[in-house]
Structures are given as structure tokens and as C-alpha cells.
Amino acid sequence: MTRVNLDGLQSFYALSNARQIPLLGLGVYLIEPGKATEDAVLWALQAGYRHIDTASMYRNEVSVGNAIRKSGIPRDQIFVTTKLYDHDQGFESAISACELSLEKLGLDYIDLYLIHSPNPGPERRNDSWKALQKLVALGKVKSIGVSNYGVHHLKELLGSNPTIRPVVNQIEVHPWLTARKLSRFVSLSIIAVEAYSPLSRGHKLEDPMLGKIAAKYSKSPAQVLVRWSLQKGYIVLPKSAHKDRIEQNADVFDFDLADGDMNVMDSFNEGYVSGWDPTVAP
Questions:
Q1: 82, 25 in Cβ contact below 8 A?
Q2: CB under 8 Å to 9, separation ≥6 — which residues?
Q3: What is the DSSP letter of 31?
Q4: C-alpha closest to that of 38 among 57, 61, 59, 66
Q5: In CATH, what is the architecture of 11-272?
């Protein structure tokens, strides 16, 4: 198994467009807008995170932007991702949705803008990608990608010979949902895998074998899961609204899971989807 050289929270992944994205980010899905989101983002930035992942559907873009400004950290040192939700897909509607996200975030540009899912179908997916390419040309977005795309969706997009190819596919990945076929196709297409719900939304944290592996390294089950994703070469987005857990999820750069333990965790795979699964949409 390939060893991954990681340099703490300053570890970056070089995207296919030569831009860099921090390997570890804070996801803010299901964190209430207002103080809860602002606190979580501020705690993460104070802990050294430089990557925040939100979406228009999360309803907390305003709070993310407020926290970024309150942090006092220069804008160019924070990588911000947001997403185009299903009901906004289409060419003109995608342009308008991005502009609204920029307004809510209070930012001049978005580092990474993703199509949130393939659910609206081929025509609207295609029009949305054309819009995202225009947003890059306008300087409103630095990088573009997709989320929850299955192999057939990616083949459709890449087969359209786009001017700009997606730099990431953000999908649910963890040891109980390794998505081997999809992850392999993504990597072979020179697209980065972003792992959301890397902690299986907490549903599997009590797994006895995971607990044994965690005890071996004197780490928590959550830390071992984050480390598993990092050693797979994924960009990983653990979510938490608790200060201690946000800090703990970032304390994963002082140990290395042995090949045998990585293999054991790979064997957990059971196709367990903790949330939705648009990768199977037509």
C-alpha cells in the first residue's frame, strides 16, 4: 500500500488545474445557521483548518462568511467550497445561484463550486456545467467540480469534451462504503475524490473492530476514520459543531495506520449509505 506523506493541517492536494486544496476541511452540513455555524467555523480556523465546505442547501453560507471575516485570516489563505443545488440547475439559474451564494458568503470569489448532485437529469446537468465554466471565465469561481456523480454521470460529462474538466467528485466514502469502482474511475480520470461523511455520520463509531484499531494507536475511532481517508489519498471533510471534536478530527497527522489495519478497515465495506445516494440517478 502506498504511503502518503502528510504535513499536518498544511497538507495540500494538487488539483488537475494546478490549484491546491487543503486535504482536511470542515464540513458544515446540518449545522444550524447563525451562532452554531459561526462558532464551528471559527473554532476550526483557530485550530488550523483552512478549508470550509458548505452549500446553498445547507442554509448557512451567510454564517460561514461572517466567521471567515471575524477570524481575521486573509481571504486568500482560506479555501471555500459551496454548491449548486438541484432546483437551481440550468444555465441562467446556475449563474444566478452562484451570484447569490457569493452575496451570502460576502466573498469576491468561490474557490470551488460544485454541482451538488446529478438528480435533475442530463439536460440540466449539461447546462449547469456550461454555466460553471462561464463562472470560471468571469473570475467568480476558481475551480469547478461535481458531487454525488456516479461513473455514468462522469462519463457523460467527460464525453461532452468540456472546456474545463471537473477537478473533484465529492462523494460519501468511509470503510463501510468504499465505493471502489467509482473511486478508481475518478482517480483514473485525474479527478480528486473528496470524502464526505467520512465518519459515517457517527453510525459506525461503536464498531468493535474499529475500536480495537483505535486503541492500538491511542486514538479515537473518529480519528482513525479520518486517517484512513487521508491514507487513501482522499480530501476528507469531517463535520462537527463541537469544539473538542473539531480539534480532535484534525489531530491525525502524528500516526500512520499500518497496511494490515488499512486492509482490515477496507474489509468493513458493506455498501452502507448513511445519507442519500444520487450516484445511481439516471
A1: no
A2: 22, 24, 47, 48, 49, 50, 250, 253
A3: P
A4: 66
A5: Alpha-Beta Barrel (3.20)
Distances (CA, A) of 50 to 42, 103, 206, 248: 11, 21, 29, 16
Q: At 200, list the grid cell.
A: 459515517
Domain residues of the chain, as ranges?
11-272
Decide if 238 contacts 244 (C-beta within 8 A): no
Q: What CA–CA distance (Å, rounded) separates 170 from 157?
A: 15
C-alpha grid cell for residue 273? 449509505
Instruction: Report the C-alpha gap between 87 and 53 in whole angstroms.
Output: 20
Quote the pTM value.
0.96
> What is the residue-level pLDDT of the chain in tens, covering all 282 positions?
344 568 888 899 999 999 999 999 999 999 999 999 999 999 999 999 999 999 999 999 999 999 999 999 999 999 999 999 999 999 999 999 999 999 999 999 999 999 999 999 999 999 999 999 999 999 999 999 999 999 999 999 999 999 999 999 999 999 999 999 999 999 999 999 999 999 999 999 999 999 999 999 999 999 999 999 999 999 999 999 999 999 999 999 999 999 999 999 999 999 999 999 999 999
> Is the distance from CB of 266 to CB of 13 less than 8 angstroms?
no
The residues that are catalytic are: 58
CA pair distance 200, 12, nearest whole angstrom: 23
